[in-house]
Amino acid sequence: MTPAIALVGLGDIALGAHLPALLRSHDVRIAALVDPDAERRESAAFAVGAPSYPDLSEVDGVDGVVLATPPWVTTGLVVEAAKAGRFVLAEKPIATSLAEAKALDALTEHERARVQVGLTYRHDPALELLREWIAEGRLGGPLLVRAHIYDERRDESDPAHAARLEETLRHGMPVVHEGAHVFDWFSFLFGGPPSEIRDGWSLATRQGLAEPNLCGARLDYPQGTVVLAEFGWLTGALPRCEISVLGDRGHVLIDGGTFDLTLDDGRSVEKVAFEPDRATRCFDRQLTRFVELMTGVRRAPSPDLADGLAALATSERVATEMGAR
Ligand SMILES: NC(=O)c1ccc[n+]([C@@H]2O[C@H](COP(=O)([O-])OP(=O)(O)OC[C@H]3O[C@@H](n4cnc5c(N)ncnc54)[C@H](O)[C@@H]3O)[C@@H](O)[C@H]2O)c1
């Protein structure tokens, strides 16, 4: 039987990535679209030909829900959907703080085992290949990692986008929102969460922002890996988004937009690009794993709630360190 899905939250990431992935898949059926915003609901319902609802509580007869909602809404909806016996694919971050995430304690083990967290880029074959290179010692070790995560430029011609980002900033610095992904990649690549957060900094580039829009920290990972991570939003221009991994034997540059890898071992330079584009391959792989969970092919979600909470815990520790400077 093809699982029936409700897509909940019809904003940027839902319409730009989840909906296209759902429409590409032959293994799921979109049975409901949910958003309190009538205009978004009607235009998505018209495009997809599925019924739409202002609230998830009105939806009946679906096996799974994809939650593409703001993080301050997502936590409660995870509990509501899992308690209703549904499988859940919930966007990161799973909450805006560990205190908010306490609401998830209401879930039983059985309900938790139905929740997959949208740490989408964990599914990228580029990260799997880089992890292999590190494990094979192609770079040597210990490693120095410089992560420059700059996203969401302030575009003066799109004030609605800037207003939405400023609203998101009320719920935490960029590290709270972007760190969920980045610290999940680093745990995956470097063998676990950071042992220590050495120092942090933050900077607001204009007055009136609820939180600083630039922030950074230095973290110690297993096996002596040192990570210097910076996160930035809402400046009129942005530095390149990229991650550099340097060891005694080699250097890898990860393009932040495409996840193309460039490995330089001092003798030769190897470039690896993956097809199709990063969003398509990651959202498709993520959805495949969710379908496998719903149909019983996969016994446990991947990434699961524990992964989502671990990434949130690191983001929160880092944000505290950054805010303390
Ligand atoms: N996985 C990724 O690569 C990725 C990329 C971008 C954003 N995100 C995450 O996805 C989430 C959504 O981001 P976005 O940029 O699409 O935000 P957005 O503001 O564009 O969209 C959120 C939508 O949710 C709707 N909504 C709010 N409350 C709701 C409720 N109770 N029920 C149903 N819908 C509700 C809003 O009306 C809006 O349409 C955020 O947590 C963000 O961090 C993930």
Automatic annotation (TrEMBL):
Domain GFO/IDH/MocA-like oxidoreductase: from-to ranges: 130-251
Swiss-Prot/TrEMBL keywords: Oxidoreductase
Pfam family, one: GFO_IDH_MocA_C3
Top-level taxon of origin: Bacteria
Residues in Gfo/Idh/MocA-like oxidoreductase N-terminal domain copies: 5-118
Family: Belongs to the Gfo/Idh/MocA family.
Protein name: Dehydrogenase
Organism classification: Bacteria, Bacillati, Actinomycetota, Actinomycetes, Pseudonocardiales
